[in-house]
Structures are given as structure tokens and as C-alpha cells.
Amino acid sequence: MSSPKGIRNYKFRIHPNKEQERKLTNWLATCRIIYNSALADRKNYYERNSKGLTRIAQQETLKADKAKRPQVKKVHSQVAQEVLFRVERAYNNFFRRVQAGEKPGYPRYKGPGQYKSLTFTQFGDGLGASFQNDKLKLSKIGLVKIDLHREIYGKAKTCTIKHEQSGKWYAIITVEEYPVLYSPNWQSIGLDVGIKEFAVLSNGEKIANPKHLQKSERKLKTLQRSLARKKKGSKNRARVRLKLAKQHEKVRNQRKDFHHQLSNQLVWKYGKIIVEDLQITNMVKNHSLAKSISDAGWGEFISMLTYKAESAGRVLEKVPPHGTTQECSRCGNIVKKSLSVRIHACPHCGLVLDRDHNAAINIVHKTKAS
Ligand SMILES: [Zn+2]
């Protein structure tokens, strides 16, 4: 879920023309074959020799295949070789689980249409992938139109081309970030997951999910209900299922954009951001809230906020969540309230405010030195 420090993925929609799309589709089909045969080779080799086949040995096989099969030769060599890294990763994961005493299934072969992405492992002028005149230049494919809706801060390292279920193409560019250190700022802010809103800040500000995201989520729910009513195996069901997959993708992308924007703003504005420790939060808070947390992608948001804060030289502190909702943020007395009670009204000191706002202030109080 979280990215290693300083590495970040940028996802952009790309618009290959018909010819480019045809080539990319062929490459995906060829890479699928490379993937499946490399996996089969490993399996056979292991069964005969009781030891593993290495990626280096598989690279030799790939080279030989290239000479024999024109379709393999058509695929850019970086892209073809990267497939072997994927096989190696799948295999290593499998063995790690075997060694841990689990009973994992053997790494799966990819069926038609199940191999969906290609990776250029080198990015830059004269390498497999690069930018040229606001377009994405892919070696052996050409200049591809790209929607660069966000500026890239850092050095691009690799580029993965992905064909999503909706039929849309994307480029995922992995970037090593330049450290951007913001000027010092001692302002603290507490952040609590909202029940109605996405988040509530300790200054009382409520942050709602953007309208277009709410609308897309509503549509998603409608489609889910509609799918449940369709007869199994019917044409209608297949049609709704495809629509649903497209809608899921749309919601995912919109949510991610929203998370990027919000985390950028917070890191820009505040020197210290305080949130509840998520792992404990899920255990403490009740089920319906836990569900709303997962719905809102809170965990993904916090991991995004964490790496952005780190790379900007900001402090992100996680505090234990105990009592943040029930305690009065002014006098410290416990004011019991159920989930349906939206207002914190303290009989001891008279404080009245939104329950989530009260919780966000308590989150700030829990830091070591706020
Ligand atoms: Zn009070």
C-alpha cells in the first residue's frame, strides 16, 4: 500500500492512435506468452532438478526465442525482459509462503486478456520511454498523446503502460522525488475521519468528498444493486458487469486525485499533522465506522499523507485513538455518546460543538508537545 520513501507513481491517461493501440495490444499478447512459458519452464526445471531456474538463465532462453520468433523480436527488449522479473517475483513470493509453512497455490498462468501491462524499465532521452514535446515517446511505438494533468516533481525512472478493463490506456510513471523541504512552520493540525464528511480538522473545518466523486459513488451503488437483480449468465448481467468495472475504475481514479490534492494542501499549510493510529482505530471504533473508513479509502490517504509529509520535511504524528470521541476537549470529562449523536454537548463545562471537531481537537491534545 505505501510507497518506499521518495518513490512515487504518477498515473496519466494516454491516447494511442489506432496503429499504436494495435501494436501495444500485440505486445501484451506476446508478453503473456513469454510470462506463461517462463513460468512453465521454471516448474518443469524444478520438477526435474529439484532446484530453481534463475532469471539470468531465463534471459538466455528469451534471447534464443527472439531469434526464432518474429513476434518476440517485435517487442522492445526492455519490455520483454521485464516480464521475467514479474515471473521471478511471483515465484519468490510463492516460495516465501511455502517456507513460512503456508500452502499457497502455484503462481497462476495468465489467461487471454489477463495480462494488462507493459513496463519500460528505463526512462529518459534516448531510452525506452521519454517525454518529447508534451508527448510520451515509447521506443518502437512512437509519440503517444498523454494528458499531463499534474506536474512531475522528480526524476522519472520507469514507465508502465496499462490497458484497463474500460478499454482506456494509462501510463504509470515511477518517479524518484527530489526532496522538497518547505520552510519551517510550527502550526499543528489534528485530523479525524469524519462520519458524514471525509475528514474534520481540529480548527473545525470539514472536508467533504468532492461532488463529482460523491456522484460517481452513488452511480456505483446503483450499478451494484442492478447487477444483483440480473439473472446469472444473462447478456444483461454481462453488460452491467462491464459498466460496473468501468465505474469502479472511475471512482478509484477520482478518489486518488482528491487524496493527492488534499494531502498536498495539508502538507503545504501545516508543520505538524496529527492523526489517529489507524491499526488501533479499526479495533476501537465500531463496525459501521470501520466500514466507512475503508469506503473512504482512509488508509490509502494516510499512507499518501505520510510519504508526502516525510519528503517535505513535515512531521506526521500518529496517536492512539482511545477516548478521542468521548472526552471533552475543553475540560477532559467523559461525555458518553452513541454514534448517532452528532453534537458534543458537555454538561460539565458547557462546551457545545460538532462531535468530530471535538475528536480532532483531542487528537491534537494527545501529541507529546503540540
Ligand atoms: Zn467539558
UniProtKB/TrEMBL annotation:
<feature type="domain" description="Probable transposase IS891/IS1136/IS1341">
    <location>
        <begin position="187"/>
        <end position="286"/>
    </location>
</feature>
<dbReference type="GO" id="GO:0006310">
    <property type="term" value="P:DNA recombination"/>
</dbReference>
<feature type="domain" description="Transposase putative helix-turn-helix">
    <location>
        <begin position="8"/>
        <end position="51"/>
    </location>
</feature>
<dbReference type="GO" id="GO:0003677">
    <property type="term" value="F:DNA binding"/>
</dbReference>
<protein>
    <submittedName>
        <fullName>Transposase, IS605 OrfB family, central region</fullName>
    </submittedName>
</protein>
<dbReference type="InterPro" id="IPR010095">
    <property type="entry name" value="Cas12f1-like_TNB"/>
</dbReference>
<dbReference type="Pfam" id="PF07282">
    <property type="entry name" value="Cas12f1-like_TNB"/>
</dbReference>
<keyword id="KW-0479">Metal-binding</keyword>
<comment type="similarity">
    <text>In the C-terminal section; belongs to the transposase 35 family.</text>
</comment>
<feature type="domain" description="Cas12f1-like TNB">
    <location>
        <begin position="298"/>
        <end position="363"/>
    </location>
</feature>
<keyword id="KW-0815">Transposition</keyword>
<keyword id="KW-0233">DNA recombination</keyword>
<comment type="similarity">
    <text>In the N-terminal section; belongs to the transposase 2 family.</text>
</comment>
<dbReference type="Pfam" id="PF01385">
    <property type="entry name" value="OrfB_IS605"/>
</dbReference>
<dbReference type="GO" id="GO:0046872">
    <property type="term" value="F:metal ion binding"/>
</dbReference>
<dbReference type="GO" id="GO:0032196">
    <property type="term" value="P:transposition"/>
</dbReference>
<dbReference type="Pfam" id="PF12323">
    <property type="entry name" value="HTH_OrfB_IS605"/>
</dbReference>
<keyword id="KW-0238">DNA-binding</keyword>
<dbReference type="InterPro" id="IPR051399">
    <property type="entry name" value="RNA-guided_DNA_endo/Transpos"/>
</dbReference>
<keyword id="KW-0862">Zinc</keyword>
<dbReference type="InterPro" id="IPR001959">
    <property type="entry name" value="Transposase"/>
</dbReference>
<dbReference type="InterPro" id="IPR021027">
    <property type="entry name" value="Transposase_put_HTH"/>
</dbReference>
